[in-house]
């Protein structure tokens, strides 16, 4: 996997993934930025949610669950001192579908967290990561 990051101005950077997709990262105005894009740590959190959601949806589909929607609400805390790593992250999954089995959803989330999601397993080295979920009938 390769990526490229180029400084634009101030604390604004343009990242390009190896697959050719671009993203702008910027800081808050009080930190010298122009607020043109998400902060790098926000992208890290979003990337982790994407990684685990990919796993969960894949596992649920393989388990023949009738999933129609899924989203993750996250809350994270960072250390007060440098390096300001994540210290706590909570993932709240909202899964919508027909006749979803709670035990299957719980297993999918656990498998992602403990075996498949490399991003959350890495972040788990510094952060206490917790998960919960709710099911909604569609």
UniProtKB/TrEMBL annotation:
InterPro entries: KH_dom-like_a/b (IPR015946), OsmC/Ohr_fam (IPR003718), OsmC/Ohrsf (IPR036102). SUPFAM superfamilies: OsmC-like (SSF82784). PANTHER family: PROTEIN YHFA (PTHR34352:SF1). Pfam families: OsmC. This is OsmC/Ohr family protein.
